[in-house]
Amino acid sequence: MDRQQEFVLRTLEERDIRFVRLWFTDVLGFLKSVAVAPAELEGAFAEGIGFDGSAIEGFARVYESDMVAKPDPATFQVLPWETGDGSHYSARMFCDISMPDGSPCWSDPRHVLRRTLARASEAGFTCYVHPEIEFYLLRDLPGDGTSPEPADRGGYFDQASHNAAPHFRRHAIETLEAMGISVEFSHHEASPGQQEIDLRYADALTMADNVMTFRYVVKEVAITQGVRASFMPKPFSQHAGSGMHTHFSLFEGDRNAFYDSEDPYELSQTGKAFVAGLLKHAREISAVTNQWVNSYKRLIVGGEAPTTVCWGHANRSALVRVPMYSPGKASSRRVEIRSPDSSCNPYLAYAVILAAGLKGVQEGYELPPPTEDNVWSLTEAERRAAGYDALPYNLAEALAVMESSELVAETLGEAVFDYFLRNKRSEWDDYRRQVTPYELGTYLPML
Question: Rounded CA gap, 287 and 291, in Å?
Answer without folding.
Answer: 5
